[in-house]
Amino acid sequence: MRRLLIIGLAALAGCVQAQRPVAGRPGQPLIIGHRGASAYLPEHTLPAYALAHAQGADLVEPDLVCSRDGVLVCLHDLTLERVTDVAARFPGRARADGRWYARDFDWSELERLTVAGPEGDGTLYRLARLTDALELVERLNDQAGRSVGVIPEFKQPAWHLAEGVDLVASTQEILARWSERNPGAAVVVQCFDLDALQVAAGPLDLPVRRVWNLSGSLPSPADLEGRTRDLAGIGLSRGAFQGPEAPGPALLQRARELGLEVFVWTFRGDEAALTEFLRRFCVDAVFVDDPDVGCRAREAARAPSAAGATP
User: Is the bond leading into 266 cis (omega within 30 degrees of zero)?
Assistant: First the structure.
């Protein structure tokens, strides 16, 4: 009952918040609900997305994999055992590597799985489809008078292609239909695979921004222009901004010169650290596990002491 009360109050707060812009701007970065409000509720479940919306997120993030029967499922991993009871329900369905892949199950099987919730929480959490998440955001936008957008991530599209699935094309068809019904809501797609993002610039008439998430061996600022043509932005980890030799500040500066947006992941729980980060770096968006904390940090960063943030 206490959890339901908290969620209900958060929903009420979300309904009265001012509508956010659909693009970040200096001093007003977008707050992205990372896997929903995953600090509070199980990641990539509809309640987590609903709470992110209620807490003021400007975008919610569904990671995407594909089931055996072609359903796009909101899931961070290719495999199921980290977040569900798949091993108990389907003990004989693991691959040779001992993992249970969402690709090996039809949606009718996946929707029966239970997602682990917070300790002591008796709520029954389930996996969600991309269409479920989009319909939820659309409904909440209508109720709250807001234009919260979505930022799906293609999870390992090359792996899916080897499995016979064009993850990018399947996602874009659904996003195109949703965008037509929600013209004021931002649609951003992100991926660590640059080739997949270039494919995502295909023939569909979809007002989508494409963000290339950088990890591993990062490109130099000098190489950024040639590799980001026709993209809207880049994604960087918060670790790229930590330490005296951190590459993040130089990449941020070069991205600004090229007109690219910069998205940074992932903050959780430390409001002071996020506030200080936003005071130092004028990024366009931050991924947070707790959107309420992200919104408070954004407001605190805009206080007079925040003057002089790094461009």
Answer: yes
